[in-house]
Amino acid sequence: MQEIIQILTQKAQTISTMESCTGGAIVNAITNIEGASEVLKFSAVTYSNDYKIKMGVDANIINQYTVYSQQTAKAMAKTISDYTNSDYGLGITGKLNRRDRYNQHGRDNEVFISIYDRNNDTYHNFTYLANKESRLENKNEIINLVTSRLLNIIKL
Fold this sequence. Notes:
By secondary structure, this protein is an alpha/beta fold. The protein contains six helices and five strands; from the N terminus they run αβαβαααβββα. The chain has a single domain, classed as Maf protein (Alpha-Beta Complex), CATH 3.90.950.20. It has a five-stranded mixed beta sheet. α2 links the parallel β1 (15-19) and β2. α1 runs parallel beside α6 (135-154). The mean pLDDT is 92.
């Protein structure tokens, strides 16, 4: 994450995040690095559908594709980028080895991740299959995956 902060600072670029199942783990990893305030504009932990929608995610996307979908992760990434005028927006939604009694669609161990690059109007989408026993272990795996992917994207 330190290299990401350095590159974004050098490029005078910013990032914002909208996380669900990771509960702010990504933004926590970012803010653990000195200088994060230079690049981080805003972060939202939107555990409920209502708050995803209140933040600007189109309810029709959630209704059509479910909250646990790549389409919703993409909408979260773009919405947070637009909301904060950030160069990059990160959206994460999914389940970490857990049933959701309110949203029963989708696999109970699949996480959808999207990084929106506003300057190129492109999405970088990927999934993570939660295969660790604890939520913390799965969150740490997602942090590593996002860090690696984000680093590749911002180096372009």
